[in-house]
Amino acid sequence: MKRLSIFLCALCVMFHNAAAQDFPVDTTGIYGERQDSLDAAVFVARQAGNFLSKGKELRTEVISAAGLCKMACCNLAESFENSASVTVGYSDAVTGARQIRLLGLSGIYTQMLDETRPVMRGLSAPFGLSYVPGQWLESIQIAKGSSSVINGVECMTGQINMEHRKPTDEKPLFINAAVMSDTKMDFNIASSLQMGYKWSTVILGHVSGNVSTHDMNSDGFLDEPMMLQFNLANRWLYQAENGIQVRFGVRALQDTRLGGQVLKDAEGREVMYDYKSYTLQNTGSIDPWGSDILNRSINGYVKVGVPLNEDNSQNIALIADYAYQDMDSYFGSTKYIAGQHSAFANLLYQNVINDSHRFTLGLNGTFDRYDEDFRREVVLQDVAFNTVTDLMNAGAFGEYTYHYGEKVTAIAGLRGDWFHGHGFNVSPRVTLKYMPIDEIVIRANGGRGLRYSTPLVDNIGVFSTGKQFKGAYDGHILEDAWTVGGNLTYYMPFGASSNTYLSFDYFRTQFGQQMVVDYERDPGEIWFYPLDGKRSYTDNYQVDFSVDPFEGFNVTATFRYTNAMIELEGKGLVEKPMTGRYKGVLNLQYATRLNKWIFDFTASMNGPCRVYEFMKGMDGITEKNGKYYSPVYPLLYAQITRRFKGWDVYVGAENLTNFTQKNPIVGGDNPRQASFDASCIWGPLMGIKAHIGFRFTLWKKA
């Protein structure tokens, strides 16, 4: 869901958006000019919602504050509907967990950053996209390919960096509220306060949930779970007169989800899943299958920057982050209760020698302790484990950046990391940018990424099945991938603005090691096993075009094609299942004079994906050359925003074609059988939904 309103705002916000766009090079994310000066001029300007950054070394798509208002955009997962780079879908038809794909691969291979701090790792990954309110953010940057070595080694397909509202914003109060036709409600509040020159803070609050159940396709399962989320964060900035900066903050969250079957008792009352009474044996009593999930987390971080000379050409920085994630989850007769302690530390030294040369040296590492209590009881299988697992790595890195004026930029980085249980690994990364003329930008980059697999939480949809788990589902292999690619962007001399461009890019990701989750090896089973020398690769092609035909009107069109292949046991090299071949997006936006009225329309065309053989015969599934494919389907979104002094009121709708995946649950008539599978999702689960909402901004007086 998303919003549409183009409301922009204050020199402070504009500066931060610009600064955020340099995150692959900015080693600390700490230094910057003060933005809370009392005589700052506040004005309204028109800002592009989604655009390719011309100044970035990596191919980077920016979703600005205006882009985050194009649709209802209640959370991060719903912020990518205007982007063909990122595809968002459901991991299953029960839990409401959202997953992204970048370069045709699962979001677990994309490094998620919160202002350069790695986040959404492990237990927080399945639902993490739903835990970042869209109106908490100033911008999102989507960088494709292997990025800087500075933020760790886990980046494989790219990075998504989130810039939150700043303590230095000139907005003492911001309120956003929206309600959807499916009864989901969303409320956000933010307050930025400056207490003199040295101290400033921002408080961010969020609550969302739905108040009634829906089963639009009448399959006996809720289309979305009953949900209630509370989310609170407090961020601080201290800036000393000698240039030392300290940023720190805390965040706490609780989220409950109850989904699955809804049955009726003899009196006609609805009965939902209760894990305390559910049994695998169906005695004929009212005993619905479902999921009951409670997620709680707390996070704290600190970032310290110390200039070593007056012009800040030399500085050191320390970034430290700690998070605890608790996940109590039940799926039918399966129990998965887990806790994760995570710590990340990064110590950097940066030296800007002159305009042409700079280098960064540093040490960083991650530590994750998983405490897992797991039991799965399905047909012909009753397995359990209760373990404490430590996964850790520590590394040293160096990165050198060379600028030849504005024409050439070269970045060479090298990391050496020790992984617990896997020894020492070297990860090189190289980025090149060349501008032969001002209108043409050529980029190329490549490098290696490594990450520990956590098979069950990486693939949470497997819990919403009746299948047996086989193989290394409790293992943690070290996944290894190389990504190489490039981008060519041509800025054309027509249109009402200087930001008319046509862009082409290609990226290839090839795995040396990967945790394979195989639904096709044996009926009624899901196998987990390492790639171990077999082939797994993805080729990703994309074309972007943007133009303002006349003042106030923007047209953006994007098309992405993906060729994803994997070698499975007993099947050889096949097209990766449940991976869409292509996606096209067209966004039209028109704003009247002074942005009083803003009209936004988005259309996307989603290509077919190869589905599992056991899905043959389901509605919409077709056969071609002995393989089975989902249909091509469109999605349409529209929103109108009316802006007043300090207020935005917006109304819109999504999925205007009312297209949904028919019968998304295999074997839903008897979820106690091995044939039951609610994880095979290729399309939208909800039909047309309308929304209405408002935004209120109180600006600081000069």
Description:
With 702 residues, the chain is mainly beta. It has a single domain (11-698), classed as Beta Barrel (Maltoporin, Chain A), CATH 2.40.170. 3% of the residues lie in helices and 54% in strands. The protein contains three helices and 40 strands. The strands form six sheets. The chain has a 22-stranded antiparallel β-barrel. The two termini are 36 Å apart.
Largest sheet: 22 strands, antiparallel, barrel
Average residue-wise pLDDT: 89
Return Rg in Å: 25 Å
Structural class category: mainly beta
CATH architecture descriptor name: Beta Barrel
Gist of the model:
With 702 residues, the chain is mainly β.
List keywords for this structure.
mainly beta; disordered N terminus; globular; Maltoporin, Chain A; 702 residues
Chart the SSEs and their pairings.
Elements (H helix, E strand, L loop, with lengths): L10 H10 L29 E3 L7 E4 L22 E5 L7 E5 L2 E2 L3 E5 L2 E3 L5 H4 L8 E8 L13 E7 L8 E8 L4 E11 L3 E11 L16 E14 L5 E16 L1 E3 L5 E3 L17 E18 L6 E18 L2 E19 L4 E22 L2 E24 L3 E12 L3 E12 L5 E13 L2 H4 L9 E4 L6 E14 L9 E13 L1 E4 L6 E6 L5 E15 L2 E16 L3 E4 L6 E10 L5 E10 L3 E2 L10 E3 L2 E3 L3 E12 L2 E8 L34 E10 L4
